[in-house]
Amino acid sequence: MRLPNSEIGKFVALGGTFESHQDEAGRTYRWPDLWVVPGESVISENETIRLPSRVEEVKPGSELTAVIGEDIYEASEEDAWDAIKGFTISNDVTAAGDWPGWSDPDHGMITGVGYKSLPTFSPTLSEYVGKQDEGHYDDLDVEVQVDGEVCVSGSTTQMAFSIPEMVSFASNIVELHENDVVALGDPGSPQMVLDDATSVTCKIESVGELENSIKHC
Questions:
Q1: Number of Cβ within a 10 Å radius of residue 48
Q2: Which among 12, 73, 85, 99 has most CB atoms closer than 10 A?
Q3: Class assignment of domain 5-216?
């Protein structure tokens, strides 16, 4: 099944959803961080991620991403799960830098969210697979390769929140409609950055593979 990026409605991103990522950040999360990704950030597979010269330490993140099939707002976990029609993959490209930056240089989270919003920084696979039983998603391999080398190797067993819990949470902040997507976070701790790379590939078991070239501007 296809959901071209031109047909994606709202792109909602959640952060801090994996225990491994929480440990990396040294934070305790009562619930995920949430932000809405601008349309110009979303590109398809095989399109090019553009890295401005002002950014550095650009990190990839392979994210299981829920595709919404019906309108929900303030949904229960049960209703949130029922509203998902399938899953795809997105890449949570995140950079650091000094300008345009953040008000508190010691607060890394503000840095990360700001630099997640740059154009081309949210590649999303235009193919999605239909939803299976909830238990199917309990232990899926999550991987990132940078120029063919493994950069991230994790599993959805590391998720700190269930998928219904995360989509319910998102729906209690923003209204969700058919063809909106909710990116459900990544394991974190990448072993490589994209600063000098030419390609990045995100893989999630039974969902697919998202590959993008990289251009340094």
A1: 14
A2: 12
A3: alpha beta
Q: Residue for token digits 């232990």?
A: 139
User: What is residue 116's three-state secondary structure?
Assistant: coil
pLDDT in tens, 47-93: 999 999 888 899 999 999 999 999 999 999 999 999 999 999 999 99
Instruction: For residue 25, give the 3-state DSSP assignment.
Output: helix
| Selection from 88, 109, 114 nearest residue 99 by Cα | 114
Whether residue 131 contacts residue 85, with contact meaning beta carbons closer than 8 Å, is answered with yes
3-state secondary structure of 21: helix
Whole-prediction pTM: 0.93
Ordered by start, the domain boundaries in the chain are 5-216
